[in-house]
Write a structure and sequence with these properties.
Family: Belongs to the leucine-binding protein family.
Shape: globular
Protein name: Extracellular ligand-binding receptor
Organism: Acidovorax ebreus (strain TPSY)
Structural class: alpha/beta
Number of helices: 13
Keywords: Amino-acid transport, Receptor, Signal, Transport
Helix content: 40-55%
Radius of gyration: 21 Å
Number of strands: 14
Number of domains: 2
GO biological process, one term: amino acid transport
CATH class of the largest domain: Alpha Beta
């Protein structure tokens, strides 16, 4: 049902962008993706392929935030619409999608496109076009340069990796291996992990690349078993991580595993069941199942309003990202344009979303949050620590 709603919304947004049947006020026409009654936001994400779960999380979390805002009258009287297009985690498709969104003038801004190689492909285009882009789903430090149109929300992967390795080393574990995805994201994480280990006078006990489709998984598991590490850092993402966790548990019992916030999409956490018990993961938003913070209570309320009772890190992150964009739109005013939205986002200081603070400090690179926590999964797929 949710997917059909988004497809319908996307269709309506495209129709509004293309329709010449009526004339909008000049100021509304000046801004791409803006009509008299709606604001259209673009997103290219994996809605199929190995990172399917990330696209689903964005549909759920950002969709819940948009619906929550729309129920209150929208932003300055305009409803928010999310225009999602599938790229199957293929950087070339991501680039083609974003080129089309920009070329057609169908979106005022971009929100949460997924993947390090995918964002690497589109950031130059974003900068050239001047379209505001909020919360890429990547923490790659290589993308946190002096870009004037990109507003990161999540903490960096570098910070996540350092925190995980420090925790593992602090437990007295000496032989820490690294399994990394065989693409730009994974190779950058390997560099981060190697630097973090070197700072502790350590080297990876094993380092091995796994294909994004998992075709070399047996060889990877064999290499890990042969090295006999005491712990393994999973610098991976998507469905391949499920096979890794299960395989390491079976073939290298007793080896501790730790992963980044993107290692397992929400759906994959549920798939693991008992096999996921004991897996440590970094968290770049609070625990979505513990309603101690106002942010989490607001998120859970928004999800329940969409008849969704399963909460996850991924959909909470997407909810937070959408809330940041909504704040920028509100500050940009009724006669919103892309330059006005960019300036409004850059002006965000100490924005407290209810126990989660976003601050862009007024200068590029814009990184809103450095929140990192660590959690350990139980057999139900929820964090127990």
């Amino acid at each position: 049902m949710q997917r059909r709603q988004f497809v319908l919304q996307a269709g309506r947004a495209a129709a509004l962008a293309a329709a010449p049947a009526f004339v909008l006020p000049a100021r509304a026409q000046d801004a791409p993706g803006v009509s008299a009654k709606a604001l259209s936001i673009g997103c290219s994400a994996a809605m199929s392929g190995p990172l399917l779960g990330f696209g689903t999380d964005i549909q759920l979390g950002a969709g819940a935030a948009f619906a929550q805002a729309n129920a209150r009258g929208g932003v300055h009287g305009r409803t928010l619409q999310l225009q999602m297009v599938d790229d199957a985690y293929d950087p070339e498709r991501t680039l083609a999608n974003v080129k089309q969104i920009i070329g057609q003038g169908s979106a005022l801004a971009l929100l949460s496109c997924v993947g390090t190689p995918n964002n690497t492909a589109i950031v130059p285009l974003v900068e050239e076009a001047g379209i505001p882009y909020v919360a890429p789903i990547t923490g790659a430090s290589s993308l946190r340069k002096s870009t004037r149109n990109v507003f990161h929300v999540r903490a960096s992967y570098t910070d996540e990796v350092q925190r995980l390795i420090q925790r593992l080393a602090g437990m007295g574990l000496k032989g820490i291996g690294v399994v990394y995805l065989d693409n730009g994201y994974g190779r950058e994480m390997l560099e981060d992990a190697t630097r973090a280990l070197a700072a502790l006078n350590m080297k990876p006990a094993v380092q091995v690349a796994v294909a994004t489709d998992g075709k070399n998984l047996p060889q990877v598991l064999q290499a890990v078993a042969a090295a006999r590490p005491s712990a393994v850092l999973l610098a991976t993402a998507g469905t391949v991580s499920v096979g890794l966790v299960r395989g390491i548990k079976k073939e290298s019992p007793g080896v501790l595993m730790a992963g980044l916030s993107v290692t397992l999409p929400s759906a994959s956490v549920g798939q693991l069941g008992e096999d996921g018990s004991g897996l440590a993961l970094s968290m770049i938003v609070p625990d979505p199942n513990r309603a101690k913070l106002q942010l989490v209570r607001d998120y859970q309320s928004a999800m329940r309003a969409q008849v969704k009772s399963e909460f996850s890190q991924g959909s909470l992150e997407a909810y937070v990202n959408a809330r940041v964009l909504i704040e920028g739109l509100d500050r940009a005013g009724k006669d919103v344009t892309q330059p006005k939205l960019r300036a409004a986002l850059a002006g965000i200081r100490n924005l407290d979303l209810g126990g989660f603070v976003v601050d862009y400090s007024g200068q590029a690179p814009y990184v809103g949050s450095r929140f990192i926590d660590l959690g350990v999964l139980g057999s139900t797929g929820r964090f127990i620590a």
